[in-house]
Design brief:
mainly alpha, 2 domains, 2 strands, about 5% strand, rod-shaped
């Protein structure tokens, strides 16, 4: 699935491509016109809107607080009991923080 970077889109270029591609009368049945219109939109988007990879960094609610807890959790990779317990506590803390950040973001 393509993830578009809407904020970095070049909307003038997008509009120019759509205008240029639809300058000619679209011929044929309604189905052919719909297929052609979809092709035009996809071509304009691919040429004027950058894409981004899906990753945890693309999450809009992710901030420094979440990053810090994640770093601390990842640092606890030891094999002794205390480090495993600390990692488990940090996992719970991270999940709670993420849940709360998501809740606040989507309100």
């Amino acid at each position: 699935m393509i993830r578009w970077s809407w904020k970095k889109a070049n909307w003038e270029k997008y509009e120019d491509i759509v205008k240029e591609e639809t300058k000619h009368e679209m011929e044929g049945s309604l189905r052919n016109k719909i297929v052609r219109w979809n092709e035009v939109i996809c071509k304009a988007a691919k040429e004027s809107i950058p894409t981004k990879k899906a990753s945890w960094k693309n999450k809009p609610f992710w901030d420094e607080q979440v990053d810090e807890v994640r770093r601390r959790r990842d640092a606890c990779r030891g094999t002794n009991k205390e480090e495993r317990e600390e990692r488990a506590k940090l996992n719970v803390e991270l999940a709670e923080i993420i849940r709360e950040k998501k809740r606040k973001y989507w309100k």
